[in-house]
Amino acid sequence: MRLLYLRDAIFRRDNDSIIMSSRGTLGMIVSVVFTALATCFVAMRMYTRVKLMNRVEANDWMVIIALVNSYVFMALDIIEAVSGMGVHLKNIPPSILERQMKAFWLTIPFYNAAVLCAKASILMQYFRVFPTHRMRVVCWVMITFLGIYGTWAVISAFLNCVPVAKFWDESIPGFCLSKTNLWFSNASMHISTDVAILVIPIPALMAVDLPRKQKIALMIMFALGGFVCITSIVRLVSLKKISDSTDPTYDNVGAASWSAIECNTGIICACLPTLKPLIARFFPGMVSTFNASRTTRGDTTRRNSDWNGDATTFATPGEEHEYGAGDPERVLALVPSTGFRPSLKRWTREEEKKLARISSVPGPRPKRKHPRPLPVDVAVPF
């Protein structure tokens, strides 16, 4: 083993099989640290679902798939780090360079899969948080779009070059898609979907009649997804640098680091809204539960510990019948004298048919006498 000290890096060579630099090591550490953080949040989420809520939903499995892809990305990032990432191209032997480029080729589809699965998990949570017909349609449209785009992103990453070996060996006859155009189009699509996912719940949140402090806390919780959008933009800048670089192995560290940050912060943000029961169990003083029960006389808000509060549920006026699309245990019962109040009552089939008949009658709708918007059960950390 011998050490070579250069101006900007330290190389360790062991029979010319490992080449590491300080820059590459930093990129590897970033990937490992953020993957470990994402693992902790997913572990807390699954503990909450399995031990406290006694149920695991589709959005939980989706975030687990995202974490698995993040682990594969981390492993490939480590291979890149020990294969000369952060080292000047001229100082890397051809065999080591080929290994690094193969690992780099594989990181792209697994990065895309991790990011897209985390986004799908967030959209699936919107089904439960905002169980209205309009929100479900919007979320299904977004999920369908992500599915189609994600399929293209993964396949195009694997088949960027035909034959695929041309990606790491330009001497092989064949053709490749423009890496710059492909990377920039994918990065732009990630930013656009980040913004869309961030904007989708804002109208519903603004329509909810809550104390100002509580509404701000809810807005902050959902706005945490904005950090993922910021990382996507920073990653786009790093991609611009590497696309114009004549020394890509040296300049790739920034793009690799921000890719790891983006996919893991997406997983963390997908887990945050599900941790309220865990916080309430171990830190009850940090959680304030408000169970609003409005009356036409302006009754004060009262607590109700019997209502299942694993998730916040909202609806806009006129959509109270759509709570059947969400948790069947959480519906709003109409009481003529007091407006809407929370109820654990399941709707019977006869009641559903009656409601369908009423909603299908043509003509103007009678004005409702309940306050706008509907009361909700909310639990947010302070």
From TrEMBL:
Lineage, top-rank taxon, reads: Eukaryota
Q: Where is this region: Disordered?
A: 351-382
The record places domain Rhodopsin at 44-281
Q: Where does it live in the cell?
A: Membrane
Q: Which UniProt keywords apply?
A: Membrane, Transmembrane, Transmembrane helix
Indicate whether Membrane appears among the record's keywords.
Answer: yes
Chief localization class? membrane
What's a single GO CC term here?
membrane
Transmembrane helix is among the record's keywords: yes
Membrane-spanning segments = 26-48, 60-83, 103-125, 137-159, 216-237
Membrane topology annotation: Multi-pass membrane protein
- Extract the PANTHER family matched here: MEMBRANE PROTEIN, PUTATIVE (AFU_ORTHOLOGUE AFUA_6G07820)-RELATED, PTH11-LIKE INTEGRAL MEMBRANE PROTEIN (AFU_ORTHOLOGUE AFUA_5G11245)
Q: Which family does it belong to?
A: Belongs to the SAT4 family.
Q: State the protein's name.
A: Integral membrane protein, putative
Task: Look up and give the organism this protein is from.
Answer: Penicillium digitatum (strain PHI26 / CECT 20796) (Green mold)
